[in-house]
Design a protein that fits this description.
This protein is an all-alpha fold and about 200 residues long. Helices cover about 50% and strands about 5% of the residues. The protein has a two-stranded antiparallel ribbon with strand order 1-2. The chain is elongated.
Length: about 200
């Protein structure tokens, strides 16, 4: 009678929920973009740090560079001088784990949960609020100093929701302290380039 029936453009997950047929393709594309951007940040940062003698100039020295414990360096850098390579190693890790920054006005319940990871529930993640509470008691000055105090066999450092501002605050504190020892290297121009142009850069 002149009617045309088109096949559904979605996949039925259950009676109440549908999913676009393009979801799998979109997620794969998003993963590729994230990987490419992360790799580009690492490449750009290593190039800048190498120019400042804060990154090994030869590939044979990369092994010893990566073997340095960045958490201990991030703690040590709050109280005294780090070598240029040690500070470069700390910054390189901040670039790899730079925290969560949401574009939404509200956070989800999972992101805000206040439970602290106890090592038994592998699927649970401690919330941002719980880490803020730990830092607010004054015992730890930065998130890096708190992680340096954790014994890996007792409590996992990874698998956490961490607010990006926590890492930005730590970057600023470390830079301010190390700048006293290397004023000619850690200039304001280099700080903006490394901090805002590479490590914590985010597209609008």
């Amino acid at each position: 009678i002149g009617s045309r029936i088109f096949s559904a453009g979605v996949n039925d997950l259950n009676e109440k929920k549908e999913e676009s047929k393009n979801v799998a393709r979109r997620l794969a594309r998003l993963t590729r973009r994230q990987y490419d951007r992360r790799r580009k940040r690492k490449r750009n940062l290593s190039t800048v740090l190498r120019e400042l003698n804060m990154f090994p100039s030869q590939d044979k020295d990369l092994g010893s560079f990566y073997r340095m414990n960045p958490y201990l360096l991030r703690k040590k850098g709050l109280d005294g001088q780090l070598t240029p390579l040690e500070f470069g190693r700390a910054l390189y890790q901040l670039n790899q784990h730079r925290g969560f920054k949401s574009s939404r006005k509200t956070t989800s319940e999972d992101e805000d949960k206040g439970t602290i990871f106890d090592g038994d529930s592998k699927n649970s993640k401690p919330g941002i609020n719980s880490l803020k509470e730990i830092l607010s008691n004054g015992k730890y000055r930065t998130i890096g100093e708190y992680f340096a105090s954790i014994k890996p066999r007792e409590l996992r450092i990874r698998n956490r929701y961490i607010e990006r501002q926590m890492f930005i605050d730590e970057f600023d504190k470390l830079w301010e302290i190390q700048q006293k020892f290397y004023p000619n290297i850690l200039t304001e121009k280099n700080r903006k380039q490394i901090r805002d142009g590479i490590i914590f850069f985010q597209r609008p």
